[in-house]
Amino acid sequence: MDILNANTSYRPHRKELEGRVARNLVKEIREENLMSKAELARKAGVSPLTIDRVEKGMNCRMETKRKIILALGYKLSDKHKIFPED
Q1: Tens-place pLDDT, residues 38-54
Q2: Over the chain (86 residues), what is each successive 10-residue block's mean pLDDT?
Q3: Quick one: CA dihedral 18, 16, 69, 84, positive or negative?
Q4: DSSP codes joined into one string, 46-75
Q5: All residues at 6 or more sequence positions from 72 whose CB lies less than 8 Å from its CB, including other chains
Q6: pLDDT reported for residue 70
Q7: According to the model, what pLDDT value does residue 14 have?
Q8: Which H helix or E strand runs over 44?
Q9: pLDDT at 85
Q10: Domain range list for the chain
Q11: How far apart are CA 59 and CA 57, in angstroms?
């Protein structure tokens, strides 16, 4: 196999695309607060992998969103500021 001519473009599988939602502002707000993913995960009581998935726009439970909103220092009534499409 010729490595130089190999097709290296990445195309996500359908399973990877399922469950995607509109963009949220978790990453932007977390970075504005100089907070790492690990720190946000710890404050929210979720795994860093969950934070990573949420920041990439994957679906999550309402309870997870609630934990993230509060961990970022927002009120639940400010949900639309973090998750505008919900």
Answers
A1: 999 999 999 999 999 99
A2: 50 49 86 98 99 95 98 97 89
A3: negative
A4: S-HHHHHHHHTTB---HHHHHHHHHHTT--
A5: 26, 29, 30, 33, 35, 40, 82
A6: 98
A7: 46
A8: helix 37-44
A9: 82
A10: 21-82
A11: 7
What per-residue confidence (pLDDT) applies to 75? 98
- Amino acid, single-letter form, for residue 53: R
CATH superfamily of 21-82: lambda repressor-like DNA-binding domains (1.10.260.40)
CA distance 51 to 32: 16
Residue linked to tokens 């977390």: 30
Cα atoms in the 13 Å half-sphere on the side-chain side of 69: 20
Evaluate the CA torsion angle 2, 13, 17, 48 in order and state its sign.
negative
